[in-house]
Model the fold of this input.
Amino acid sequence: MHSSGVSIWFFIGILLAVYGALILGYGIFEVATGHLANVVLANLHASLWWGGILELLGLFYTINFRPGKAKK
Done:
Protein backbone atom coordinates (compact mmCIF):
# COMPACT_ATOMS: atom_id res chain seq x y z
CA MET A 1 0.00 0.00 0.00
CA HIS A 2 1.39 3.36 -1.03
CA SER A 3 0.85 6.34 1.22
CA SER A 4 1.42 9.82 -0.19
CA GLY A 5 0.35 11.66 2.97
CA VAL A 6 2.53 13.43 5.49
CA SER A 7 3.63 11.42 8.51
CA ILE A 8 2.04 12.29 11.85
CA TRP A 9 5.54 12.27 13.36
CA PHE A 10 6.44 15.33 11.31
CA PHE A 11 3.63 17.31 12.98
CA ILE A 12 4.52 15.93 16.40
CA GLY A 13 8.09 17.09 15.80
CA ILE A 14 6.89 20.59 14.94
CA LEU A 15 4.74 20.68 18.08
CA LEU A 16 7.61 19.51 20.30
CA ALA A 17 9.97 22.04 18.73
CA VAL A 18 7.54 24.90 19.31
CA TYR A 19 6.89 23.90 22.93
CA GLY A 20 10.62 23.42 23.46
CA ALA A 21 11.38 26.88 22.08
CA LEU A 22 8.76 28.47 24.35
CA ILE A 23 9.95 26.68 27.49
CA LEU A 24 13.61 27.24 26.66
CA GLY A 25 12.93 30.93 26.01
CA TYR A 26 11.27 31.25 29.41
CA GLY A 27 14.19 29.46 31.05
CA ILE A 28 16.66 31.83 29.44
CA PHE A 29 14.52 34.76 30.58
CA GLU A 30 14.52 33.42 34.15
CA VAL A 31 18.28 33.07 34.24
CA ALA A 32 18.93 36.42 32.54
CA THR A 33 16.69 38.40 34.89
CA GLY A 34 17.46 36.38 38.02
CA HIS A 35 13.73 36.12 38.75
CA LEU A 36 13.43 32.38 39.40
CA ALA A 37 10.16 30.66 40.20
CA ASN A 38 9.53 30.02 43.88
CA VAL A 39 9.93 26.23 43.82
CA VAL A 40 12.07 23.87 45.89
CA LEU A 41 14.61 22.93 43.20
CA ALA A 42 14.74 26.24 41.31
CA ASN A 43 18.55 26.08 41.24
CA LEU A 44 18.36 23.14 38.79
CA HIS A 45 16.75 25.35 36.09
CA ALA A 46 14.34 22.67 34.89
CA SER A 47 12.90 24.93 32.19
CA LEU A 48 16.30 25.14 30.51
CA TRP A 49 16.77 21.37 30.59
CA TRP A 50 13.27 20.41 29.47
CA GLY A 51 13.12 23.17 26.87
CA GLY A 52 16.40 22.01 25.39
CA ILE A 53 15.38 18.34 25.41
CA LEU A 54 12.01 19.10 23.77
CA GLU A 55 13.70 21.30 21.17
CA LEU A 56 16.23 18.61 20.24
CA LEU A 57 13.58 15.89 20.12
CA GLY A 58 11.29 18.08 18.02
CA LEU A 59 14.07 18.88 15.56
CA PHE A 60 14.96 15.19 15.32
CA TYR A 61 11.39 14.19 14.42
CA THR A 62 10.88 17.15 12.10
CA ILE A 63 14.06 16.44 10.14
CA ASN A 64 13.69 12.65 9.99
CA PHE A 65 10.02 12.64 8.96
CA ARG A 66 9.90 15.76 6.75
CA PRO A 67 7.70 15.55 3.65
CA GLY A 68 9.48 14.80 0.39
CA LYS A 69 12.34 12.97 2.07
CA ALA A 70 13.41 10.15 -0.22
CA LYS A 71 12.81 6.71 1.28
CA LYS A 72 15.74 4.32 0.93
